[in-house]
Structure formats: structure tokens, C-alpha cells
């Protein structure tokens, strides 16, 4: 009864907070129409009305489907349609829709709904993995007559009665020939998840409505190309309203050039974001854009989730693609592009009303002034945010899969009988790794001022460089021992040499591209290749992370408590505050040992994963190994800095730079380590000497091991394949031998 009343309330649009949708007939040869739907209230009401009238077929793709009142209303509508003979195919994304309960899924399956999950995500320590290459499309086709395209997910946070966090977004309902194109695409994807339509040789200037997709095959930048083409040819006005705005260089330059040549360029972006870091990233671009005359407005009433644009009162787009690195470089997206003056006028009118009544204008004069530190940090953050998806795309990526749910499951993110193994690496994987390494080397080299550091590098004694290399090797050896020690904790029996190989490769990529891809992703791939279960890999990862940061906390606590870190007078948090923090960190270290002593036999459950503390003796070994590793890295820097600064000071500065790199989520801490060292040691050592030391440090500790890791990764993969082939061969021999002794079947 409750679900029924909810569905009716949504269908009636009881809480509608936008103008009534108006249908616009296409004006040229495309015999069809487009209707703009604003926010979930209009969208859900119309969708459920069309589904209720379905007689033959429903095709639905959505990034998010939640078990809330909207999800339950859709659930009831799909079941009712299936029970009256309609063929229903639903695809949800495994990352965006991770926690659908068993009764929700079972009811759909039992009613005959074909439910597919795009790339189910195994959870590691309660966190979803496989965050890249998500199916972010929102498409619906009913009976081949109605199509819906947009950015609205099936979740209650798109309804007005959700409150101040209700999202504002848009979708379009389409009729006419374009519906057949969308249906054909969705059917092809169902048959082959890797389907990529043939490329067009040029723009279809006659079509009034056209579906454009972004995938990781033939259409990697099609949506961005459509934007750039329209912006370059704009003559009067450009209005772009986008939730996550951080486009590439060419699109930014196109907007900048359009404003320079007199086009009125308006950007409507988030002012009250659901993800605050997105606004921080977008604001890095404000000064560059406003300097050309672009007018920027931030929507402040609620989170803005739209992905729409209008150009020259005729060209318009509605869809799922943001203008950010994830949407433009990794995720699977779909936008519809319309050439229709009436539809464009409707969308333009609504966006201008938002700008006038619910947005704040960004005044160029009030933007933060440029300072060397802000310029440098902004440069680093901008380029890392732009390049990180490309780096992720070069790493050993699994091939996305689509799982058809055919039997009762606990949740949609539940794996099949066992976690899907990573697919075989493609033949060009090694070449891609080498290309990535070359790019990293080039980027580091380009970022440095060679004229000021070459002399300092030349002056390094070979014995100093040899000692630095030895310290780096010792550090990697100690780090690899974390995983060797974890064998006892995780209770597996892999050979030491294989564990060291996995740990070395993971650590090298962890340092250069981040923990999620390196520390977690490579362990998951390589250990699963060697036959370990997801639960065992999760325990290894948890033990390694705990070991690494246990030593950090202990050393940082000691350095801060002893006031060994040089504090600039401009810092608001003085030596007293840092000393208190040091004692807190030392207390946390002691607390870990107390927990290991008191609760060593107790296990906790966290999202289906069992957490068990190691024995006290093992915890002390963790501390010894981790502190040794951190001290070795600090010693490496101490040697490269010419031993002109006290070792305790170098240790403190290094520990501070390490945590700063983690908090900023910048792979390899590029720029962060340099800023911290120059800021804290700039009064003690010449800046060029510090930069030279850090450059050599990166070459010795980051780049050289990364080159070795590429070869080691190929070796580990080769060993895994060889062992698998040997196992299969033995099994085949045993099977043939047994077959010769089986009794004859009775007739």
C-alpha cells in the first residue's frame, strides 16, 4: 500500500517545482518532437505514465537505482509491466547502484525482468573498487516510441520534497526517428557490452536530433568534439550549465576565444555542490575564463546536477556527460544533441531564469589575488586533475563485464560464486606501461628549472648516489616484508619470492599513481592471478596499510612531541599545538598495542569483511618494520641534502610532506613535497640545492623502481600463466587416467 501511494504521488508530480513541460515539434524533416523535463518531479511523473502504458518493450539504463520511494515506485511499475507481458530489460551500474537488497532484486527476477549489472564491484575493506570506466548513461526507451535521455537518476534526491539537498537536473523526452536510433544502440549494448557504433565521417548537419555516446573504443571524445564544434561556430550566445566543470585545454580555449570575439558566454556551475572538491577544481579556471569576458554564475539554492547547454538560440544538448575528466575521458556517457529553435528557446529561458533568481555572479575583481604559491599549486592541481584519468586509462585495466542476474542474490554488488578474476592483459599492455613511464619522466623533467639545478646535480659524488640507491633498495626490501609478514596474518601459503614480486610492483605503482590503483588495484590483480581469494587479498591489504601507517604515526608523534620540526612564524598552529598533536599520535600508537593485547581473539564484521587484530608480538614487528622504512627514506633525503640539516629535522619535514601528499590525493605528491621542503628548509639551504636533491630523490626512489616494476609485472604475469598452464595439464592427465578405470555405463 505504501509503495502504491508513493508511486501515485510521484506520478502526479505533487511536489513539482518547475514550469509545466512543453512539447516542441521538430521543424524540419525529422518527424518527431522533444519535451524538456525539469527535475525529478516532472521526469518521474512522465516516465511512470509512459511505462504504465507500455505494451511491448521497456529498455532502461541508469547509473543509480536506489531502494527509496522513487526506486520502489519504478520497481512496482516494471514488475506490473512485465506481468502483463511487456519485455523488460534493465541495466544498472555496479558502482552507482551497489546495495539493492535481496527482496528488491528477487521480485524483479521472479516477475521476468531481465536485470543486468554493469561491471559488478567487489568491495575491499568495505569500499567499492573499479571506480573508473563506469556506465554513467541514463537512457529509457518504451515500445520504440518514446525515449528519455538526461542526467536524472532513479533516486529520491531528485525530488523537491527531499529538501535543501534536492538536485536540480534535466532530461528530454523524444519521439520520432531518433527513438529508433536510441533503441538500436541499447539493444546492441545488451547483446555485446563492448559494442561501439561505427564512426561518422563528419557532422550530421541535417539531423534535428542525434544521440552521441562516449565510450572507450571508437568514440572516446565524440561528446567533447560536438561541444567544441558548436562553440567554435557560435556567433551570438553560449550558455553551458554543468554540474562538474573541469574540461580539457581545447574546450577551455574554445570558450576563451568565443568570449574574445564578442560571443556572450555564460557558465552556470555549482555553488552548493554535493561534492565540494568539484567546486574547488572548477574555481581554478575562473580567472582564466573571466579574463576573456566569460560570465560565471554559481547556483546556490541546491546542488546542481544538470548537464545541458544552449548555443545561438538553436543548438542544445541534454544528457549524462559532465564536462570533467571522468565523463570526458573514462565513463560511458550519452547525450542527445538537438537543432531546434523552439526547444532551445525553452531550455534557454529556464536557464536564464535560474541565473537571474537563484545564482550569484562571480565578480572577477573579488577572485583571490595571484601569488607565486597559489599560481604554482594551481598549476600542479590543474594538470594532475586533467591527467590523472589518462594515467588511470593506461594502467592494467580490467575489461568491463555485464552480469545478468538470474538467481536470488543478497545485493546487486554480491559477486558470483567467486570474485571475477581480472581479464588477461592485452598484448600492448607492456608498451602502454613504458609509454606511461616515459610520460612521467618527461613531466618531471619539464617541471624543473634545469638552469638552476644542473650544477647542483653534477656536483653529486658517485658515492653519494650509490648510497642513495642502496638506501632506496633497503626501503623497498623492508616494504616488501610487510606482505611477507602478512602471510601469517592472512593465512596463505604463497612462496616468499612471489609475495615480494607482488609487493614490489604494487609499491612502485602506488608511489607514482596512487594507493587505489597501485596499492589496491595491483594487489587485487596479481594476487588473484596467483589464486588468492578476495577476502584474503583484503586482509593482506589491510595489514600492509596498517603496518605502513603505524610506523608513521609513531615517528610523527615523536618528532612533534620533541619539537624537532622547524615551524615558520606565520603558521597559526605553533609549536605548542603541534606538540600536543605529537602526544596524541604517540597515545594512538600505544592504543593499538593495547587493542592487540586485549582483543586479539575477537573479530569484527565491517560490510561483510572480517577484521581481526594481529597478536601483540606481530604488532611489535609491524612497528619495527614500518619505522625502519620511514627512517630509511628520510636517510636517503638526508644524504642527498648533503647532511647539512639535522637528520631529525629532515625526518620531520619528510613526514609532514608525506601526509600532505596523501591529504591532497596527488599521485607521487608532485609539487606538494617540493613546496613543503622549500617552505620549511628554504632559510637553511639554497632553493636550487633543495630542488636538485628532490629531483634526484624522485629519480632514485620513484622512477627507477617504476621502470623495474614494469619488467617485474610482466614477469609475475608470465609466472602466473605458466603455473596455470601446468595445473591444467596435470588435471588433464589425471582425468585421462581416471577415465580408463571407470566402469562402463549401464544400458
Could you outline the blueprint of secondary structure elements for this entry?
Elements (H helix, E strand, L loop, with lengths): L1 H11 L10 E3 L7 E6 H14 L4 E6 L6 H15 L3 E7 L8 H9 L3 E5 L4 E2 L2 E2 L10 E4 L3 E5 L19 E6 L1 H15 L17 E6 L7 H11 L4 E6 L6 H12 L3 E7 L5 H8 L2 H5 L4 E5 L7 E5 L3 E5 L5 H5 L3 E7 L1 H18 E3 L10 H23 L7 E4 L23 H19 L2 H9 L3 H29 L5 H18 L1 H15 L4 H28 L13 H24 L4 E4 L2 E4 L3 H25 L6 H17 L8 H10 L5 H53 L8
Parallel strand pairs: 3-4, 4-5, 12-13, 13-14
Antiparallel strand pairs: 1-2, 2-10, 3-8, 5-19, 6-7, 8-9, 9-10, 11-17, 12-15, 14-18, 15-16, 16-17, 20-21
Describe the biggest sheet?
9 strands, mixed
How would the global form be characterised?
globular
N/C terminus separation: 58 Å
Low-confidence stretches: 1-18, 408-431, 433-445, 741-747
Mean pLDDT: 78
Rg over CA atoms = 29 Å
Strand order of the largest sheet: 1-2-10-9-8-3-4-5-19
The amount of helix comes to 40-55%
**Number of E-type strands:** 21
Helix/strand structural class: alpha+beta
Count the DSSP helices.
Answer: 23
Which percent range describes the beta-strand content? 5-15%
For this entry, give a set of tags.
disordered N terminus; globular; single chain; 8-stranded mixed beta sheet; alpha+beta; 747 residues; 23 helices; 9-stranded mixed beta sheet; disordered C terminus
Amino acid at each position: 500500500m505504501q509503495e502504491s501511494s508513493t508511486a501515485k504521488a510521484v506520478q502526479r508530480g505533487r511536489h513539482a517545482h518547475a514550469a509545466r513541460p512543453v512539447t516542441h515539434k521538430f521543424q524540419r524533416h525529422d518527424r518527431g518532437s522533444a519535451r524538456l523535463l525539469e527535475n525529478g518531479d516532472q521526469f518521474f511523473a512522465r516516465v511512470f505514465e509512459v511505462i504504465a502504458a507500455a505494451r511491448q518493450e521497456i529498455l532502461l539504463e541508469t547509473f543509480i537505482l536506489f531502494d527509496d520511494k522513487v526506486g520502489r515506485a519504478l520497481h512496482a511499475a516494471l514488475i506490473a509491466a512485465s506481468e502483463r507481458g511487456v519485455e523488460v530489460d534493465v541495466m544498472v551500474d555496479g558502482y552507482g547502484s551497489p546495495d539493492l537488497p535481496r527482496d528488491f532484486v528477487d521480485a524483479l527476477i521472479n516477475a521476468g525482468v531481465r536485470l543486468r549489472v554493469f561491471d559488478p564491484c567487489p568491495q575491499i575493506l568495505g569500499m567499492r573498487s573499479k571506480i573508473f570506466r563506469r556506465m554513467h548513461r541514463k537512457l529509457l526507451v518504451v515500445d520504440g516510441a518514446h525515449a528519455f535521455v538526461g542526467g536524472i537518476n532513479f533516486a529520491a534526491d531528485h525530488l523537491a520534497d527531499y529538501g535543501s539537498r534536492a538536485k536540480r537536473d534535466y532530461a528530454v523526452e523524444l519521439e520520432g526517428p531518433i527513438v529508433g536510433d536510441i533503441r538500436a544502440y541499447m539493444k546492441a549494448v545488451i547483446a555485446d557490452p563492448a559494442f561501439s557504433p561505427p564512426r561518422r565521417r563528419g557532422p550530421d548537419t541535417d539531423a534535428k536530433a542525434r544521440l552521441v555516446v562516449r565510450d572507450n573504443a571508437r568514440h572516446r571524445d565524440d561528446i567533447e568534439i560536438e561541444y567544441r564544434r558548436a562553440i567554435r561556430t557560435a556567433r551570438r550566445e553560449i550558455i553551458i550549465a554543468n554540474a562538474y566543470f573541469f574540461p580539457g585545454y581545447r574546450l577551455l580555449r574554445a570558450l576563451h576565444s568565443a568570449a574574445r570575439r564578442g560571443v556572450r558566454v555564460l557558465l552556470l556551475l555549482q555553488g552548493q555542490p554535493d561534492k565540494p572538491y568539484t567546486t574547488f577544481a572548477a574555481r581554478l579556471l575562473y580567472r582564466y575564463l573571466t579574463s576573456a569576458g566569460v560570465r560565471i554564475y554559481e547556483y546556490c539554492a541546491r546542488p546542481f546536477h544538470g548537464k545541458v547547454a544552449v548555443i545561438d538560440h538553436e543548438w542544445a544538448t541534454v544528457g549524462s556527460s559532465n564536462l570533467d575528466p571522468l565523463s570526458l575521458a573514462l565513463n560511458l556517457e550519452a547525450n542527445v544533441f538537438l537543432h531546434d529553435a523552439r526547444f532551445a528557446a525553452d531550455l534557454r529561458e529556464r536557464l536564464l531564469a535560474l541565473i537571474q533568481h537563484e545564482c550569484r555572479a562571480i565578480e572577477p575583481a573579488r577572485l583571490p589575488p595571484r601569488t607565486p604559491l597559489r599560481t604554482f599549486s594551481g598549476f600542479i592541481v590543474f594538470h594532475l586533475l586533467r591527467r590523472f584519468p589518462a594515467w588511470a586509462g593506461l594502467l592494467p585495466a580490467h575489461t568491463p563485464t555485464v552480469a545478468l542476474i538470474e538467481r536470488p542474490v543478497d545485493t546487486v554488488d554480491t559477486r558470483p560464486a567467486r570474485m571475477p578474476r581480472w581479464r588477461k592483459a592485452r598484448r600492448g599492455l607492456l608498451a602502454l606501461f613504458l609509454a606511461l613511464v616515459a610520460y612521467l619522466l618527461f613531466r618531471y623533467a619539464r617541471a624543473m628549472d634545469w638552469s638552476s639545478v644542473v650544477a647542483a646535480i653534477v656536483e653529486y659524488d658517485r658515492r653519494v648516489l650509490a648510497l642513495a640507491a642502496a638506501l632506496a633498495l633497503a626501503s623497498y626490501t623492508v616494504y616488501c616484508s610487510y606482505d611477507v609478514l602478512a602471510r601469517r596474518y592472512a593465512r596463505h601459503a604463497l612462496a616468499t619470492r612471489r609475495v615480494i614480486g607482488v609487493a614490489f610492483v604494487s609499491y612502485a605503482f602506488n608511489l607514482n599513481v596512487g594507493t587505489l590503483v597501485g596499492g589496491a588495484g595491483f594487489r587485487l590483480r596479481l594476487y588473484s592471478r596467483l589464486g588468492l581469494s578476495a577476502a584474503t587479498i583484503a586482509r593482506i591489504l589491510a595489514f600492509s596499510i596498517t603496518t605502513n601507517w603505524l610506523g608513521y604515526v609513531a615517528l610523527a608523534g615523536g618528532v612533534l612531541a620533541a619539537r624537532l620540526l622547524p615551524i615558520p612564524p606565520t603558521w597559526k598552529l605553533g609549536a605548542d599545538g603541534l606538540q600536543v598533536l605529537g602526544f596524541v599520535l604517540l597515545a594512538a600508537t600505544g592504543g593499538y598495542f593495547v587493542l592487540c593485547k586485549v582483543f586479539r581473539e575477537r573479530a569484527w564484521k565491517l560490510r561483510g569483511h572480517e577484521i581481526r587484530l594481529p597478536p601483540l608480538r606481530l604488532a611489535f614487528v609491524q612497528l619495527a618494520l614500518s619505522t625502519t622504512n620511514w627512517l630509511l627514506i628520510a636517510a636517503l633525503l638526508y644524504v642527498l641534502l648533503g647532511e647539512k640539516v639535522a637528520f631529525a629535522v629532515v625526518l620531520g619535514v619528510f613526514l609532514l610532506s608525506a601526509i600532505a601528499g596523501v591529504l591532497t590525493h596527488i599521485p607521487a605528491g608532485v609539487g606538494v613535497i617540493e613546496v613543503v621542503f622549500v617552505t620549511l628548509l628554504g632559510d637553511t639551504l639554497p632553493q636550487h640545492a633543495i630542488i636538485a636533491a628532490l629531483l634526484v630523490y624522485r629519480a632514485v626512489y620513484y622512477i627507477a623502481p617504476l621502470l623495474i616494476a614494469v619488467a617485474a609485472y610482466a614477469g609475475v604475469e608470465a609466472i602466473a600463466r605458466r603455473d596455470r598452464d601446468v595445473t591444467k595439464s596435470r588435471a588433464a592427465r589425471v582425468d585421462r587416467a581416471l577415465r580408463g578405470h571407470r566402469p562402463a555405463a549401464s544400458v
